[in-house]
Design a protein that fits this description.
This protein folds into two domains: 9-97, no CATH class; 106-183, no CATH class. It has seven helices and four strands; from the N terminus they run E-E-H-E-H-H-E-H-H-H-H. The protein has helices at residues 37-43, 56-61, 75-83, 109-115, 117-127, 134-148, 168-183, and strands at residues 9-17, 33-35, 50-54, 87-97. It has a four-stranded mixed β-sheet. The longest helix is centred in the last third of the chain and has 16 residues, at 168-183.
Length: 184
């Protein structure tokens, strides 16, 4: 399938596997297909890690935000922005081999997000604006508040409104649990 000159396709997406060949997640019978990363996760419920490879011009149009005093931005923030404009050609084959490292990003993700609360809040606040099932919106609202309680600055930060503010109670509980586990 030709994607180079197709203005609707932003890149390709394939499966990831460990170096021993074990796929990280599940194969999906819907291949090849044009799909956005939002559809992939929330409509077709893909699980596991995938490798998304974008056209250079797409990545130039959707840079990661630079936030003062923060060193991390969830990649989903940018991927979801791209997904509103472009689809990916999903290939149901392994295109990337990787292994998780002890002490790597995945094992420290909660702490890292706590240290970059504005970017984390941006990611979850924007996810609430997408056409996704309400259970995922509820999880996004809870995580928004989970990391909102990490922000003590006086500057501007993303805000959510309406019914999603009820999730602050669960978010507070998760925040307290995170702080407790980090102190151990």
């Amino acid at each position: 399938m030709e994607i180079k000159d197709n203005p609707l396709i932003g890149g390709v997406c394939g499966l990831m596997a460990h170096h021993d060949g074990t796929i990280i997640g599940e194969r999906n019978a819907l291949s090849p297909m044009d799909i956005s990363s939002i559809e992939m996760r929330y409509k077709y419920a893909f699980t596991g890690d995938v490798c998304e490879v974008f056209k250079a011009e797409v990545l130039r149009d959707f840079p990661f935000p630079e936030i003062e005093n923060e060193k991390f931005c969830p990649e989903d923030l940018v991927l979801n922005r791209i997904a509103k404009k472009f689809k990916l050609l999903f290939i149901n084959d392994v295109i990337y081999y990787r292994d998780y490292l002890d002490g790597g990003l995945t094992s420290k993700i909660v702490k890292i997000r706590m240290q970059s609360p504005i970017a984390s809040m941006m990611c979850y606040a924007e996810l609430l604006q997408n056409d996704i099932p309400y259970i995922y919106k509820l999880k996004a609202a809870i995580n928004y508040w989970r990391f909102r309680f990490c922000y003590y600055g006086k500057g501007s930060f993303p805000k959510i409104r309406g019914i999603w503010n009820v999730a602050s109670l669960i978010g507070w509980g998760m925040h307290i649990k995170d702080v407790y586990l980090l102190d151990k």
